Amino acid sequence: MSLDFEATGLDFERDTIVSFGTVPVRQGRIDIGSADYELVDPGEVAPSPVSITVHGLLPADLRGAQGLEAARASLGRQIEGRFLVTWAGMVEAGFLNRMYGGGVRSWLRRCIDARELMFALEEDPPRPFTLSSVAEGLGVPVASPHHALDDALVTAQVFLIAASRLEARGVRTVRELQRTVRPADPVLRRPRAPLG
Q1: pTM of the prediction?
Q2: Contact 19, 37 (CB under 8 A)
């Protein structure tokens, strides 16, 4: 299940989600007919001006949307027992932990981070290394960046491309995909002074 959140900000102690998009990925295929997009009223937590600039959701857009408890129940049914495909999974894991508890690490164990997969495949990653820039390089259309449903759909497509390329390199299981991370940057060490 590909998952994307938009939120009031990125402080996992204070902020909360304002929308989510889910796109099922089954047997190497995207099930767009079962995709879901839901707005969430953040209650007392006002979206920051920066977050509004990013996702474009104004407080007026969120008035009357389901509350966090209803969103929690709806999303919980969709993701129950499923691996989650994300872009920069630490963000989704942070908000999942805020919504359901269990710890960020526990949620990360259920995530396959398409960003990490693409980093592992790129010899010269583009700067900035955003979902939109990577999708553009792969020929994946991006209709509405930072809209939770569009980002979940683009993430699912990028994931399938990355998984296909990694399969050609012998990566075949979900666990192997999860262990695929970007190559470590070379560590520059200061030369030691000669002894004596």
Answers
A1: 0.89
A2: yes
